[in-house]
Amino acid sequence: MGLFRLLFWIAIIFAAIWVWRRYISAPKRPSQAQREDEPAPMVRCAHCGVHIPQTQALTQDQRWYCSQKHLEQGPHTGDR
Fold first, then answer.
1. Which of 6, 26, 51, 58 has its CA 20 to 30 A from that of 12?
2. pLDDT in tens, 30-49
């Protein structure tokens, strides 16, 4: 009976340590890698209408453009 109690308490202690380690290692905030997986804000090119990530777009006069060429050509006027 004494050996059974000893094994029981050893099992309880190991289970408590395992639960404690899992609780401590649980992420409390999103890591940088998780934030990189979030979608980037998209903007529409004022010339051709293509949507591109805002970080890759060029801006002028509160308008977004997908390339330097479209920025130089300006917004699309609709007379094509």
1. 26
2. 555 556 667 889 999 999 99
Distance of CA 43 to the CA centre of its chain: 18
pLDDT in tens, 9-30: 999 999 999 998 888 876 666 5
Q: How is residue 28 written in tokens? A: 């409390």
User: Reduced to 3 states, what is the DSSP secondary structure of residue 45?
Assistant: strand
For residue 47, how many other CB atoms are within 10 A of its CB? 20
Distance CA 12, CA 21 (A): 14
| Number of helical (H) and strand (E) elements in the chain, helices listed first | 3, 4
Q: 């992420």: which residue's tokens? A: 27
Domain boundaries, the chain: 2-73
Please report the beta strands in the chain, taking only residues with DSSP state E, as ranges in sequence order: 42-44, 51-53, 58-60, 63-65
CA 12 to chain centre: 39
